[in-house]
Amino acid sequence: MLLLFQVLLPLSVQAQQAVATPKPVSIQVDFSKEKGEMKPIWAWWGYDEPNYTYMKDGKKLLSEIADLSPVPVYVRAHSLLVTDEGPRAALKWGSTNAYTEDKRGRPVYDWTVIDQIFDTYVERGMKPFAQIGFMPKALSTKPEPYRHNWKPGAEYSDIYLGWAYPPKDYKKWAELVYQWVRHSVDRYGKEEVESWYWELWNEPNIGYWQGTTEEYIKLYDYTADAVKRALPTARIGGPETTGPGWDKAADFLRTFLDHVVSGKNYATGKTGAPLDFITFHAKGSPKVVNGVVQMNMGAQLRDIDKGFEIVASYPQLKNLPIVIGESDPEGCAACSEADYPHNAYRNGTMYSSYTAASFARKYELADHHGVNLLGAVTWGFEFEDQPWFAGFRDMATNGVDKPVLNVFRMFGMMQGNRVEVSSNSIPASANGNLTASANKKSGLAYDFKEVRDASVRGERTDVNALAAKDKSSATVMVWNYHDDNVEAPAAPVEVSMKGLPTDQVLLHHYRIDKENSNSYEAWKEMGSPQNPSAEQIAALEKAGQLQLLTSPQWVKTKDGKATVRMQLPRQGVSLLRLTW
Which residues form the signal peptide (predicted)? Predict the structure, then answer.
């Protein structure tokens, strides 16, 4: 007989709930059936504005991100080679002035700002996912106009100016890359730089690259050769295209991989090019429907699915690590809720439940295609000195963590190997009444293929789980996700576990919902202040941390089995952590 434990309610309340509450979602976890390593694919972050790295809130957030992970976190930033009148940050902009030229056209290298950025990472035990780009003004084939002044609401295409063009001299570009890698080795040591990943450019199949596909391939050949000459054991990859679910992006990715395998190298004249890992992007596509934000997780998963399919079609490349260089619910991190109403999901728990559910499906898609998924970069950092909870896609606002960051704190506790999980699901009807078709489907859980093909729509919610186990702990992450951001009753959930290796375990139950681990709801309860007091900020900082739903409790198991029952609110996420 399974050991059951739950919050005890008065008998009359239990009787009322028995009438109103639908059949519990049943989640079965078998810790004895391992599915593969619980790779920390989530321990990757990125952002457009590199100069935010060493600012006050940037440093604070990077410290928190480093602290939540048991492994080194990799960080990717745009514009590390961009020129400006002085290093300065703005939305979708940054600069380092690493490369200029004197009056005679001779290179002048200045690594001061890049060192400041990379020092901030390395001091925290983090590692650069070093993006080689964009084009310094002195090397651009179209240097004027060079700097954009984009603001939310402006046309996105307005940003693709001189920094996005090919070099006027590929050998000078290659020498810049060589000097950068050599400088990194001198500053941080060979062993440290060997642990980094170097990648070229960003989304070269759209406006970020104002050259042709062949010109990008030429740039890659010169870049990869320079990296390897500077440090033969360095890791170089690409092409960081947009989502392969788009035909033109898929064509670009295939053309690049064909060249890597059998093309004539522009830099060396040999066949092929060095490639240590493969990168592409994957994004969802939310919109507002009848005044309600509706996500589209399926769009993001289809990008991932197609990218994995393409990589798996190359026998020579199938086992290479894959890094999804940007993997998010939608595209523009710097586009606030005020100008883009579909981004209203970002401050609250919809972003956190989406993150839990989508990362679980990334593991399953990698298993399905038999590819080596190394990382999935969350393109969301922080925006310095912006209004509180402005609706940017960020992890924190003015130094206060948002609910989504707590999902990553949960992931940081999930170690060892992934284990088998099975479940059913329940209709998502807000009034609890089940239609005939919903009743028919209510015994079926969403699998990754269904979410990929149709997202999470209609009457069923995606109540599901991801679980892992190592030598002395086991974890189960449970989410209640739906694409539509509407109010609905909490789902009754029953998590039945077996394969626990001891007669007694210590349970910690963490929760993200409107009442727990949620600085946004705390801020609204304060009256949404734009100038909060020191006391209010301290309260918001506390509310932004990951919180326990109940006190830790010792649980006696029977034949290695135990069951946890809970009420999980819509867009809520729970983590059950069992230790022994």
Answer: 1-15
Burial (0-12, 13-18, 19+ Cβ within 10 Å), 90: middle
Tell me where in the chain the CATH 3.20.20.80 domain(s) lie. Answer: 39-412
CA-to-CA distance for 251 and 263, rounded, in angstroms?
A: 16
**In CATH, 39-412 is 3.40.50.300:** no
User: Taking Cα atoms as reference points, which of 359, 297, 406, 325 lies closest to residue 44?
Assistant: 325
pLDDT tens digits, 249-287: 999 999 999 999 999 999 999 999 999 999 999 999 999
Task: Measure the CA–CA gap between 381 and 549, rounded to whole angstroms.
Answer: 27
**Cβ neighbours for 469, distance < 8 A, ≥ 6 positions apart:** 31, 34, 416, 417, 419, 475, 499
CA distance 102 to 106: 5
**What is the DSSP pairing of strand 25-37 with strand 491-498?**
parallel
**Is there a contact between 34 and 419 (Cβ–Cβ < 8 Å)?**
yes
DSSP state of 125: T
Distance (Å, whole) CA 175 – CA 225: 10
Contact predicate 217/238, CB 8 Å: no
Q: Which pTM value belongs to this model?
A: 0.93
Q: What is the DSSP letter of 139?
A: G
Helix or strand or coil: residue 577? strand
- Which residues, in sequence order, are CB contacts of 263 under 8 Å at separation 6+? 217, 271, 272, 273
For the structural domain made of 4-36+417-579, what CATH number should be given?
2.60.40.1500
Question: What is the torsional sign of CA 256, 262, 264, 265?
Answer: positive
Query: Tens digit of pLDDT for each residue in 434-471?
Result: 333 443 344 468 999 999 999 999 988 999 999 999 99
